[in-house]
Amino acid sequence: MVTDAPTPTLLTDRIEHWARTTPDAVALIYAERTWTFGEWNRDITATAAALRISGVGPGDSVAVLDKNHPSCLLLTFAAATLGAANAVLNWRLSADELIYVINNSRARILFVGPDFTDTVEAIRTELSYVATVIVVGGERDGFEAWLAPGREQGSPVEKSNDAGRTCLLLYTSGTTGYPKGACLSHANIIAHTTSVCTVFHFSSTDRNLVAMPLFHVGGSCYAMFGFHVGVPTILTREPDAAALFGALAAGATHAFLVPAVIAAIVQGGDRAIAAMRQLRYLGYGASPMPLPLLRKVLADWPEANFIQVYGMTELSGVVTTLDPADHRDPGHPERLASAGTPIPGVEMRIVDPVTGNDVAPGEPGELWFRTAQAMTGYLDNPEATAATITAEGWL
User: Cα separation of 243 and 212, whole Å?
Assistant: First the structure.
């Protein structure tokens, strides 16, 4: 299925391919709504046209402040079509942090979910570049009305073909100050998607569950997999029990979940544990996995292929994985505490941060990576970029 598809250059290439070759196949499921690849591609085109009508063009950005919703994915693909970027904002940020990241992104349009309209109204006068706020969903929904002219036009005025342009802007956790905007290009995300899909094997009957927040690489970048390989993506608004079991009932076979969510499933009892047995691949990461919990779920889900992932926003997501065989290798139980080995296309060094030299085997050091997945830089922060990425391309 995937081998017959052309190598993508731009973020929407594979969607356009599936829309041509399998237009009636399911692309996305969210709550009670289903999109085929033909419908999903048309909605991306309409959203791109609406953005262009609203004055968004190459080098511009829009922003989303919402829990998971299809409009966020539409905006990522549509902005990318125009050479613009979607800044997906962490809705857990404080008001001061939100003001900073929205202004830093220079977003011209802010799309906000109904849960966060009060938050935006309270800071609206502090947003320097936002010309328009559009509510998505709920009683005050304005998204469909905003989209209508784009549906009428049918295609954007101009399509960007620059794979080096930033198409997704995700902000770091900001542990040492305000969050920094990691600029991820078409080429970065495609490199990540292509490499990680060699580890998360998909067949034509599989379905990919996207439950993690889209403001995180484990949400937005993981969400690219189903669109890349041409299988249905099941998007949940939140990773709560009802949504997860609804996704399993809809046939989910692949998922990425953080350890805290896996622990909550286990605490749900035998029925919850049994429901998860249909997953063929379960990726986990973003925080340490307690070994007792990992051993329990390995026993509870004996047929599942577990993949531990390690990575970061600045690398578009995953750069190392502990593969399924290593999880069930009785000769090397110590590997359950390991984040595995680099994925294809990723070089790794372990370096003394003082000398810049590689350390001897078995010695601690700083992890350095060189890969096409590495961000183009931090938005408007050349000093932080230079301190993070060497002249030779090591991050």
Answer: 11
So what's the pLDDT on residue 1? 44
How confident is the model over 292-350, as pLDDT tens digits?
Answer: 999 999 999 999 999 999 999 999 999 999 999 999 999 999 999 999 999 999 999 99
Cα R_g (the chain), whole angstroms:
21
Which DSSP string corresponds to 320-333? EEE-HHHHT-TT-G
- The Cα–Cα gap between 248 and 308 comes to 21
pTM of the full structure: 0.96
Rounded to 5 degrees, what are φ and ψ at 21? Answer: -95, -35
110 by Cβ neighbours in 10 Å (0-12 / 13-18 / 19+) ranks as buried
Return the amino acid letter for 64: V
Tokens 């990318």, residue?
A: 80
The count of other CB atoms within 10 Å of the CB of residue 393 is 13
Give yes or no for a contact between 49 and 149, defined as CB atoms under 8 angstroms apart. Answer: yes
The residues near 107 (Cβ < 8 Å, ≥ 6 apart) are 61, 62, 63, 87, 129, 130
- The pLDDT of residue 259 is 97
**H, E, C per residue of 90-147:** CCCCCHHHHHHHHHHHCCCEEEECHHHHHHHHHHHHHCCCCCEEEECCCCCCCHHHHH
